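Worked example 2:
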Amino acid sequence: MILAGSGGQGLVLSGVILGQAAILDGKNVVQTVSYGIASRGGFSQAEVIIDRDEIIYQQVEQPDIVLALTAEAMELYAGMARTRVFYDSRLPAGADGPNLAGYPFTRLAAGLGQSGAANMIALGVLASATGVVTAGSLVKVIGQRFSPPLAQSNVMALHTGIALGTGAAEGS
């Protein structure tokens, strides 16, 4: 899977959390990162490979899942027919296709009073809509990575995404 957007959106952190949660779920994981010279605001992406079997090749050639939080990321990945693309619905209109699913990540984060929590909401959607990792493992990793007040607010954002993604999973 690829988590793509701009530096500062927390996608690298989301990739790390996703990978650690998958390890807790007993899966094998490889996580890599790439970002432009100016990391904050420049293009950024995290690649996460999760598998029950041994992972031989450590780069994503054809992603099964993409999380796109910027228009640039949508341009890169929306045309991949076999890839399920989750994107922020605030992005410019025109995203259309059976493999594309828009969610109000940024709007919901602002509504929680945590504008920087769109990545955690998106992580919750990915986990619940795809089943790639369990919510319990994500909550455990968040609790380990953040101080109690930050962990609590991030878990709240994660649960917002889980509820949103559960609706998507039931509709698919």
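The longest helix spans residues 148-171. The helical segments are 11-24, 71-77, 105-111, 118-130, 135-145, 148-171.
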